[in-house]
Design a protein that fits this description.
The protein is of the alpha/beta class. The chain folds into two domains: 245 residues, Glycosidases (TIM Barrel, Alpha-Beta Barrel), CATH 3.20.20.80; 116 residues, Immunoglobulin-like, CATH 2.60.40. Helix content is 25%, strand content 16%. The longest helix has 20 residues. It is globular. The relative contact order is 0.10.
Length: 407
């Protein structure tokens, strides 16, 4: 093991980074277990670690991406307080809390709200850019999205370590059946569950991270030890491009959702009027609700929440009403009243419980939602969006969220 803050090691690190930027033209760096760079020769964290300041102030690295996995193997966890102003951080808290909510754990709703808003409980003290938090549900370590919804337990026997390798607690849920299945009835909740992750990830404040292959359901057959899976040199680590033909609907769904995020979520907007979702939310006002307007349920046994987001300083104001129901029963959520200028009403926009032809629809092409309530199906996240121009069009997005059972 090297002491990263030793003068010679610091020079080795800086020389390497300069070479990769100047000669190999890389865009930036993601430092795995980056908190090790914060330790001195005795293992204690520095107040101002020299190597991190070297990296941040190096002129050759100016403008490059610097991303930290802000923890290390010895237990130093620095998410939200990693040294330096130029660093982006993998938000491991987002990863854990989103998985816990999706599988139906208790005492997660209040945390879910924080993660949706960019984790202000973690990052607020230094008023960062909203993109500082890199949010993710899966990455190169552990389960792929497809395996996350297919396995409760790791099947790592092929690694030759008697299933001792890889984490035991993956915060995963197999939707009731262990292992993938060709049965359409079993596959349906798996597909919906992956869409749930995609929609909520791309709805949250911060910088979303997807791994190549997530959009076509790449699988490691449940192997959650990435290092060993890669060393096997078989289809557990390869990217099988034929998966794109099998899951082209998911690829379309992911592409469309990314496009809508980049276009401020609102269908039909002019490109010149479209700031990013993060910019939109920076200027927004938030009202939290439960099944009744103005009465959010933050209790430990709560599995549902709603939020009205109004971003009015924009040239074309945008309203979003997000409903998330991870309860095991359908719930009727009150809808906020429409603005006085509205001539239309709420419309369904996204519904992952529907067939692929209807899971993501242009808001102008779907029927109006009648009444003052919206029924959100059991184990469903509903993310309604209101887009207002001269006549307000509110898009109701319904996202099925499956959980493991009551409580």
């Amino acid at each position: 093991m090297l002491n990263a803050n030793n003068a010679i090691v610091r020079r080795l690190i800086l020389d390497s980074l300069r070479y990769w930027i100047a000669e190999m033209h890389v865009d930036g760096f993601c430092f795995d277990r980056a908190s090790i760079l914060d330790r001195d020769e005795t293992g204690r964290p520095f107040e101002t670690p020299p190597v991190l300041w070297d990296i941040q102030t190096e002129p050759v690295l100016a403008g490059s991406k610097l991303i930290a996995e802000a923890w290390d193997a010895a237990g130093l966890y620095q998410v939200g307080r990693f040294t330096g102003d130029s660093w982006r951080e993998w938000n491991g808290r987002y990863h854990d809390d989103m998985r816990r909510f999706m599988k139906g754990d208790r005492s997660v709703v209040r945390l879910l709200a924080q993660r949706l808003l960019g984790s202000p409980d973690i990052y607020d003290y230094r008023e960062p850019e909203l993109g500082q938090s890199i949010k993710f549900v899966t990455c190169h370590d552990g389960f792929t999205p497809s395996d996350l919804v297919s396995y409760n337990n790791k099947p790592n026997e092929a690694n030759g370590e008697e299933n001792q390798d890889g984490p035991d607690d993956n915060l995963s849920w197999n939707c009731g059946i262990e292992d993938p299945s060709e049965d359409a009835e079993i596959e349906s909740p798996h597909r919906r569950h992956i869409r749930n992750f995609v929609v909520i990830l791309l709805m949250s404040v911060g910088t979303p991270m997807l791994q190549m292959g997530d959009e076509m359901r790449r699988t490691q057959h449940g192997n959650n030890n990435t290092c060993n899976a890669c060393c096997q040199d078989n289809d557990g680590s390869w990217l099988d491009w034929s998966l794109l033909d099998r899951d082209r609907d998911l690829d379309r769904f992911v592409r469309t959702r990314i496009s809508c995020r980049r276009r401020m979520i609102g269908p039909g907007r002019e490109e010149s009027l479209e700031p990013s979702l993060n910019v939109l939310l920076r200027h927004a006002e938030f009202d939290w609700h439960g099944v009744q307007l103005g009465k959010p349920d933050w209790a430990d046994d709560s599995h549902g929440i709603a939020c009205t987001i109004r971003s009015t300083p924009l040239q074309v104001p945008l309203w979003l009403h997000v409903i998330i129901n991870a309860h095991w029963e359908a719930l009727d959520f009150d809808l906020p009243p429409m603005p006085a200028a509205s001539l239309t009403g709420w419309r369904r926009w996204i519904d992952t419980a529907r067939d692929s032809s209807e899971d993501f629809t242009d808001a102008s092409a779907v029927p109006l939602v009648r009444g003052t309530q919206y029924r959100v199906a059991a184990r469903t996240t509903d993310a309604p969006v209101l887009e207002e121009s001269l006549s307000a069009t509110l898009t109701a997005s319904q996202i099925d969220v499956s959980v493991s059972g009551p409580g």
